[in-house]
Amino acid sequence: MAKDKGPRRPRAEAPRGFRDDFGAEVAERKAMLDTIAGVYHRYGFDPLETPAIETLDALGKHLPDVDRPHDGVFAWTEEDGGPWIALRYDLTAPLARVAAQYRNDLPSPYRRYAMGPVWRNEKPGPGRFRQFTQCDADTVGAPSVAADAEICAMLSDVLEAVGIPRGDYIVRVNNRKVLNGVMEAAGLLDPADPDTHAEARGIVLRAIDKLDRLGVSGVRALLGEGRKDESGDVTAGAGLSDAQADVVMGFLDARGATAAETCARLRALVGASALGCDGVAELETIAALLEAQSYGPDRIVLDPSVVRGLGYYTGPVFEAELTFEILDEKGRPKQFGSVAGGGRYDDLVKRFTGQTVPATGVSVGVDRLLAALRAKGRLAGAIPGPVVVTVMDRTRMADYFAMAATLREAGIRAEVYLGNPRNFGNQLKYADRRAAPAAIIQGEDEAARGVVQIKDLALGARIAQDASLEEWKAQPAQSEVPLADLVDAVRRILAR
Amino acid sequence: MAKDKGPRRPRAEAPRGFRDDFGAEVAERKAMLDTIAGVYHRYGFDPLETPAIETLDALGKHLPDVDRPHDGVFAWTEEDGGPWIALRYDLTAPLARVAAQYRNDLPSPYRRYAMGPVWRNEKPGPGRFRQFTQCDADTVGAPSVAADAEICAMLSDVLEAVGIPRGDYIVRVNNRKVLNGVMEAAGLLDPADPDTHAEARGIVLRAIDKLDRLGVSGVRALLGEGRKDESGDVTAGAGLSDAQADVVMGFLDARGATAAETCARLRALVGASALGCDGVAELETIAALLEAQSYGPDRIVLDPSVVRGLGYYTGPVFEAELTFEILDEKGRPKQFGSVAGGGRYDDLVKRFTGQTVPATGVSVGVDRLLAALRAKGRLAGAIPGPVVVTVMDRTRMADYFAMAATLREAGIRAEVYLGNPRNFGNQLKYADRRAAPAAIIQGEDEAARGVVQIKDLALGARIAQDASLEEWKAQPAQSEVPLADLVDAVRRILAR
User: Fold this and answer.
1) Distances in whole angstroms, Cα of residue A90 to Cα of each of A215, A309, B373
2) What's the confidence (pLDDT) of residue A467?
3) What ipTM was reported for this prediction?
4) Which domains does chain B have, with CATH numbers?
5) pLDDT greater than 70 at residue B63
6) Which residues of A touch B296 (CB under 8 A)?
7) What are the TM regions of this chain, as residue ranges (chains A, B) (predicted)?
8) Which residues of B289-323 are buried (b: 16+ CB within 10 A; e: fewer)?
9) How does pLDDT run across B69-99, given as a tens digit for each residue?
10) Between β-strands B46-49 and B110-119, what pairing exists: parallel, antiparallel or unpaired?
11) Looking at the partner chain, which of A58, A388, A415 has a beta carbon nearest the beta carbon of B12?
């Protein structure tokens, strides 16, 4: 029989799909955000912080998987008939709202960066969380693709600044206008009647976005009749004819050895489509600007297979991918994949104002970048522990606090042991637990003589591993110094 | 007649009670958080980041105004019968959950700091927002009030570190045990039967917490029959007899000239109450520890009128107040008031585990601190603008980008103008708008000669104000330098 006496206790758990970050995890993320913000700042971008909550109306429905039952957003209403509000699912939708709201006050163009959590009401899975950190930079009000080129160059700088060496990443650039030109050439888009075939084009877009995961044959199936996955589930296809599908697949395969070659192939594919030709010209401009600044194909390439799932992109799109392999949960090597992406979205502000405002930007997935650096062993994984002042005599807490204060005034991280001081072994175990570089000890005898014992814990750990009995007895890891020399003695240990 | 043609547009507004922070506001908050985190770190506190969302069950109901219709929390459920989840309303409740969930893995005592937004579903008002930033430090697992004394000392250090000079703030310390001892002495608390009079004690607690706002007579009214405010609304009173109310009011007035005097008065008030005597002894210990570290009454004082509204405090409570005056919305001088507070809450972790875990901590209201510094003119109010490279010839964007890149590589914030370049005046207006220290100009002629024009915009602004026509014509604010000297020339301007 189940007991149910006493008050019911809440479960001590974060909700499913949410996680807690401790110590080094927090410090590493902060360091990365600071580094990225530094790059954005040098490029002239200004910080913006919008609230976590927006009206659902203002956020709009821009998440890619339109066929999902829930729409991916945490949303609720406070009262019957009151407005629905929601947690932001990205940093772009709030920017569009801000650009509309403050359009008469902001500089134009407005370069802004933003960083912080976003929330997705999605099914959590391994490594998939419902809150994660984005770090975005966007330029609002710049019609020229020079703004897109700048974002791509800055993204490359960002990746190198946070510790991804050149060669370990690639920024891939494409253009939605070219894709639409290809759709036009395939008879899937009539510029005079853009609503016709809109649904099929949506399926094409999402199919191409899954190229990495489904491969060429999977995408091809989605362009035609549809696709049955391993579990037997069927995803509806776009219903393209073979000839139409050939044109789209040709687009995916159009990447040449050089930007010029890629553009030539694309120009052939889009044929007479004015939109398509415009898109190819934009790609040529971007490639030329980047080459002139030495962002060569070792950093940034044109790649028609990148489309980005989001429906709101209207021009250039880009994606940064880490090219090294890591081990997956089952120990198999796999490509790390995408860590950042973005593109031009000239119609998002128009939702509010009715007027087109050109905008382009990038979103860096900071948590994924951190996971990549962690997987490669490129993060420290710890923050330096404090010097621990132990408590030998609990009536003399004020003296121990004074020692800690003296160390801190010298810029040294220090704390007094605040657990039950009776068991001294527990105090040293605690100091180990905290990765303390040193422990300070002052009992009655030392206090009378005006000295302290300093235990070099790092050295002590090394000796404990390797030392002979004689060495152990010699205890070089513990030394006695006058109280007045405390700071100097600790500094010597920290400098080792 | 109202027009309702065309698609309905969403309103470009943040929800009521939420605000957007731009540029300097974001930078100033970040700088303050970094400074506070630095102090916490030196004291041995480790960072923790919990998600914005917790189960409502785990958060519990700890907000002070229990009589409010909504309970002050943004909460919702995703499905019928599913768990209710909520946005955290402070950083303490999530810490209690973490301390319970990871109790076998965390060091003990566990010193942690946390910073970030919290949300309150309250009626917004002037200066009252529904999302604001807290920056907390707590020690979990330290039973001794030495931990409370440490938090008070650290809070004092924090305030001075962020730019509140000594004398402009005061940390006031009290002890809930003493208040409960006073209640016992007044016949409002029977330690053997704590549920009796619990409601009246709650009213007393909230009444005392309103001393600043209602004054002595208002509090006195709430202790007795109740109080009618200016609008005619009646707040129910605790129903104390005059004799009982005298004891409570005596407690509020017990502050003496020294800590010893205050403690002596309190000891008289609590009489035979064991809890009360224990509380007075704790205050004596805290006062002794702080005095030994020279945190005298110019920084930290014992003050029985501080109780803190939250029901979960079990021992020492503290509050930091700014003592200078600012002007209110109507231009009248007023005390700035509380910017931080905290105390000991030994029962919060017990909610989850059934076992008492001692805990104490402080929460710093960063947005209020920033408002105070802003009101005193102690914040810069701007971030340094970028050097703006203007566009004279739009076919030469690559050259302009190269100039900006050169400046950035030298550590100088720089950007290319990305608006429509046709109207050069607009480019200079933009540079002014951005508070650019300099604008770089290179037309056809300059390009042919391998030089650039550099416009010193700060100097230019000064000249425009003061100069005679001759000085204006001499244009000392604009100079021509070889392209190779660009960085040095800009550095000279920045150094002015």
Assistant:
1) 28, 14, 32
2) 64
3) 0.93
4) 23-375 (3.30.930.10), 387-495 (3.40.50.800)
5) no
6) none
7) none
8) bbbebebeeebbbbbbbbbbbbbbbbbbbbbbbbe
9) 447 899 988 777 778 899 999 999 999 999 9
10) parallel
11) A58
